[in-house]
Design a protein that fits this description.
single chain, alpha+beta, 10 helices
Length: about 260
């Protein structure tokens, strides 16, 4: 069943360093997958209206927010999405510090959790919807554009990038200085983009780190045992890793909700 096209804000929250994080050693890779799943869960759980989850894409979560020009709804949606972006960074780092302090495992994945970073790309345009069984898929040129934004020349591992056209709608991003760039994207051509680098102060890193729970040694060993059990089930093929994504619609949870 095809749904009516609409204008929407498109947002992808992508975990930087994922490729290096997934090492070849089997146990390390299994732990890395568990960590990435936990971080993706934190992003999904941090999302709320007006954003809706469109899809989980390996190391990224793809969201959209339909735009409405009735009763000032468009500006409310834009402001709501801007707030959500900051929520993503805060939720991401809360989970990073929770995970890094909650295990006694010394594998490369568990030892390097704090090296992971988050980048967010944003665009607005027309999207089309296609209902495939219980899932709603987004299609259209603007969906391709927002995904292409991830393939840019920005050297930093952490930033917010948006198309200039969406920046003009947004107007401001937490009073951060905009870095204007012209990027060439495969199949799209040159696009004017704007990049922001959220500061530790804006995200509240110091407060998040100090508020991170300090589990007991018993709890750390319990967490390590839980990860080892999941690794065994995953590596033997008994049960594949996944996550419990609370913000998915109920009818979609069975497709992405994997047990321990």
């Amino acid at each position: 069943m095809q749904l009516s096209p609409c204008q929407a804000i498109l947002v992808i929250a992508d975990i930087s360093g994922f490729t290096k994080f997934m090492k070849l050693h089997a146990i390390t890779t299994s732990h890395a997958k568990q960590i990435i799943v936990a971080l993706l869960e934190s992003l999904v759980d941090a999302s709320s209206s007006p954003l809706e989850l469109a899809e989980l894409e390996g190391d990224a979560a793809f969201f959209y927010a339909p735009l409405s020009d009735q009763n000032g709804g468009e500006q409310q949606t834009i402001d709501g999405v801007k707030n959500q972006v900051l929520n993503f960074f805060q939720a991401f780092y809360r989970k990073v510090y929770e995970l890094s302090g909650a295990t006694v495992c010394v594998c490369e994945a568990c030892s390097c959790v704090e090296n992971l970073r988050l980048k967010v790309v944003m665009h607005a345009g027309e999207v089309e919807f296609e209902q495939i069984r219980s899932f709603t898929k987004l299609f259209g040129l603007d969906v391709i554009v927002v995904h292409r934004l991830l393939k840019n020349s920005v050297r930093s591992k952490e930033y917010v990038m948006m198309t200039d056209s969406f920046y003009r709608q947004l107007g401001d991003f937490y009073a951060l200085k905009p870095e204007k760039r012209r990027e060439e994207f495969e199949g799209i051509g040159k696009l004017e983009t704007v990049v922001f680098y959220p500061s530790n102060e804006l995200i509240g890193i110091a407060d998040i780190r100090s508020a991170a729970p300090a589990p007991t040694l018993f709890k750390k060993f319990a967490n390590w045992g839980r990860m080892s059990r999941r690794s065994f089930l995953d590596l033997t093929g008994i049960r594949k890793l996944g996550g419990n994504f609370q913000n998915l619609p109920a009818k979609e949870k069975t497709a992405t909700n994997f047990s321990e």
